Amino acid sequence: MMVVVRGDEELAGRAADLAGRLPEALEPLARIAYNYRWRWYPGGKDVFRSIDEGRWELCGENPVRLLQEASGEALARAAGDRALLARAASLEDAFALDLGRASVGPFSPGRPIAFLCAEYGVHRSLPIYSGGLGVLAGDLLKEASDGALPLVAVGLMYRQGYFRQRLEASGWQQEYWVDIDPERLPAALVRAPDGRPVTITVPIRGSEVSAQIWRVAVGRVPLFLLDADLPENGRLERWITSQLYVADPVTRLSQYVLLGVGGVRALAALGIEPGLVHLNEGHAAFAVLELAREEAARGASVEAALEAARQRTVFTTHTPVAAGNETYPRELVFDTLAGVSGELGVDPEMIVRLGRQHPEDGAEPFGTTVFSLRMSRSANGVSRRHGGVSREMWRGLWPERPVDSVPITHVTNGVHLPSWVGPPMRRLLDRHLGDDWLWRASDAATWEALDRIPDAELWEARREQRAELVRFVQERSGIDRLAERQPRAGIETAARAFDPDVLTIGFARRNATYKRLGLLTRDPGRALALLAGRRVQFVLAGKAHPSDEEAKRVVQELFRVKDAPHVAEHVVYLHDYDLGMAPRLLRGCDVWLNLPRPPMEASGTSGMKAVINGGLNLSTLDGWWAEAYDGTNGWALPGEVHPDAVAQDERDAAALFDLLEQQVLPAFYGRDADGLPRSWLARIRASMRTLAPAFCAGRMLGDYIERIYAPTTTRA
Q: For a disulfide at 613, which of 509, 527, 537, 587, Cβ 3.0-4.6 Å?
């Protein structure tokens, strides 16, 4: 049976308090609301939405807020809805079965894997994520729950989360932040037996920073979030858990100390001794120092303590982009870690040296990635190509080795299929692959049944999901254009924009210059000619980091053509891309674009989510697509590294439009006597058959268990 962990009682208490305010028949919904397992249970979202659809959207799909804010009339109506009550009972029964299963894997519930990450994309109602890293972390937690793997997760409770985005009429991005009230989230403060919150302290920049611990349930997986917004902390210390990826380097490094050192201390305060610590990116690197301090407190020498900590730590690097491999000046590291290094009994200079590629170079700054690579027993990239790129990047840490033997392997990312498949496609696959196909998704044999699905049924599921996206675009683009203060004609055009029978192409992700959104307008004449044919429509979205002025200008350049003929009817750029919008785009788009400059894309998981919905990928042969593309399951742009970026962009923009004009559009609109695009549907089957089992989270988690988490995994 699953071991009860700290915070379970508090979550149950919060649920009971909420249930006491509801009609008796709706009490199960209060219990369901405090575990995000409803997010990927079939119909789970519909149970809450059917209470009050308008309120559900207004509260950001937060089930706790919905039940707190729904009117008495809406609750009474729901309490009399027998179908809704039956679905709620089914949900609660499924939860009980899920939580009651025995744990599996190489670790025991008493010594679980501890997963540390700066962000988690579990659901839009828990806005502590910014992009792919967080969404991947959320998917891994969900898959660990499904697989009954003993795993606990630690992060930070950002009181303002990540920024919200609004675009001006010129296309320039404006940012704003919204305060988050943890008391309104599906979360509970972990409390001691005397009722007071459990707190830990971490010495950061000469201050003892206190943090309380929030507990969130992601199925079977407990997610603990540290919160420094406490009255006993100074104003600057309280700001440590204010915003995700705050620009100020002093605050950001302080966040990483709290996440790493504080994360391990929080687990100890909760009575959890992890058998292994997984650093998901370098933000939590300092966890190793706390693991070593624990070993030293048991009598080990500093050298032995550091090595013991290293043998309990694995590390995943997620990007070759310089901004994602953060460095900090020696003096800032000294000041921030003075208390931690003093408790461990080491000279802070030793810590700084461990974070340099060339330890003796006093001018080289401290790098979180370098430190994590040095202080972990195993390290991996997130795709086959990224593993090779990482070995080349960090070969200086092992100068005596040839690059091919640098000890950095790879585990290619995967996506949690139940979270991303659209209802029409799920119903289709349930009928033809069997009700339990999601549990068998990583087995290639599961997908052989695709050939038995009639073309008409597959096409109807695709059209239904595209039509849902079109309805969403018509509503959202009108609102966005109002916010941009566009002329009335443009706003009215948005209400009529898009057609459920037109080829729909999507490009949506965290905006960075290497993602090359600008390829779409590299040749404006060719782009406008494509739109003039009225046979294609583009859905675009994405945020640039507030400090990334260059990425903001890329979007602004796109907006310069918004008044050209046919653009308003066939192109939308949606504001404030988040986890609420992403599934709609990924389910409805026929083609998913990913155009990174090689070799900057570590993985790129959004395209994997399109696959399970019958979407096709057109991507650069970089990241996951370099190992996924086989010529039949999508389309590809060249993936070689080019010394001339301008020439490369010219070539790739031309190749992109060649593919769209000569292959993509003819395949989509090439219909037979029954009105079906047979070659397009054959490519969808090839995509799902070859990619769904290989790039699902079940395969990914299995690789981590066998190749990274296994107790015998180590490196020289």
A: 587
